[in-house]
User: Which sequence fits this backbone?
């Protein structure tokens, strides 16, 4: 991460007014429009590579791909490559790799979390069961590495392999902190960095690698992605308590019901009195939930301002992401990537 922090408001003010859009959906429009042709090519690579003679694999893979999603991570690879002036085609296949790795982790996450909804639709494990979901997730991981091997770069293969290992470590770390109300903010951030931010960092870094840019630019894009990914997850965890279900795409309060220790709870536990801590231990550690417990949890989070403080921390990392791009000259691609930072924080409003 970078040491210098540029306030998010200042970083946004430096962008052309035409790029500063208030609506949530508009914040990704600039990047999407900039890489639209490449993104169509990425979708073609994804469709081609999720085919299998085993019908269940193709059906289940098609289900989760068709469920939508913003394609944010592959768009970051495409946008970073454009920022670095890359004019070849390797970034298309590598963006597809990034999306396959992300999709595989979603399949596995939904099994671990026993989730029934994702993006407002039934999860694959809810439709086909846990075993097929895990195995198709493995298939998608394998496809990602087949594509990266075909790219022919050991550096690219090393980045993606290291990232896949980090993602798995992050998921295991999250298991060890689940239901543990003694989890520290530092431990929580370590999980977020591994399970979410690492793939954002790799997605951005690949753009500099294929363009053969200097190490400083590669590091700047890695830092941009890492800080963006942390901010994204912080907002996501805040939204689990503060969003409407239609916006969230899953049941509001799932983290609470699953005993998942995220930053709003970490802060509320630290700030609460012993009676409040006993409530968190009963609900999050022991899993003894009563009908009104989620309402009480929301009241405690509100009393201690932990949702707002979680979002404020997200703004801190967003500012560092903006600062990381300071190395690059002004360009349409830079504006588009800065708009992604705005998107991440505006989801909280």
Assistant:
């Amino acid at each position: 991460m970078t040491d210098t922090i540029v306030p998010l408001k200042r970083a946004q003010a430096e962008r052309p007014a035409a790029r500063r859009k208030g609506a949530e959906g508009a914040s990704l429009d600039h990047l999407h429009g900039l890489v639209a042709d490449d993104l169509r090519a990425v979708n073609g690579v994804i469709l081609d590579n999720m085919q299998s003679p085993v019908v269940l694999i193709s059906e289940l893979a098609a289900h989760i791909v068709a469920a939508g999603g913003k394609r944010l991570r592959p768009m970051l690879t495409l946008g970073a490559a454009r920022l670095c002036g890359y004019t070849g085609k390797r970034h298309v296949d590598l963006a597809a790799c990034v999306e396959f790795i992300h999709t595989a982790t979603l399949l596995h996450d939904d099994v671990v979390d026993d989730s029934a909804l994702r993006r407002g639709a039934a999860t694959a494990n809810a439709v086909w069961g846990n075993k097929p979901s895990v195995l198709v997730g493995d298939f998608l991981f394998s496809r990602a590495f087949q594509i990266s091997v075909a790219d022919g770069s050991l550096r690219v293969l090393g980045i993606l392999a290291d990232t896949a290992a980090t993602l798995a470590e992050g998921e295991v770390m999250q298991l060890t902190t689940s239901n543990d109300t003694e989890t520290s903010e530092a431990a929580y951030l370590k999980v977020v960095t591994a399970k979410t931010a690492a793939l954002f960092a790799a997605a951005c870094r690949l753009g500099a690698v294929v363009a053969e840019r200097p190490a400083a630019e590669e590091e700047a894009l890695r830092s941009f992605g890492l800080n963006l990914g942390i901010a994204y997850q912080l907002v996501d965890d805040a939204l689990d308590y503060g969003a409407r279900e239609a916006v969230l795409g899953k049941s509001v309060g799932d983290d609470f019901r699953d005993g998942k220790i995220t930053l709003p709870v970490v802060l509320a536990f630290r700030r609460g009195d012993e009676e409040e801590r006993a409530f968190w231990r009963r609900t999050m550690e022991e899993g003894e939930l009563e009908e009104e417990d989620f309402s009480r949890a929301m009241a405690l989070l509100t009393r201690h301002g932990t949702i707002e403080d979680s979002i404020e921390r997200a703004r801190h990392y967003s500012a560092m992401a903006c600062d990381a791009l300071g190395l690059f000259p002004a360009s349409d691609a830079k504006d588009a990537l800065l708009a992604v930072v705005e998107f991440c924080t505006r989801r909280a409003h």
In short: The longest strand covers residues 117-118. Strands lie at 117-118, 121-122.
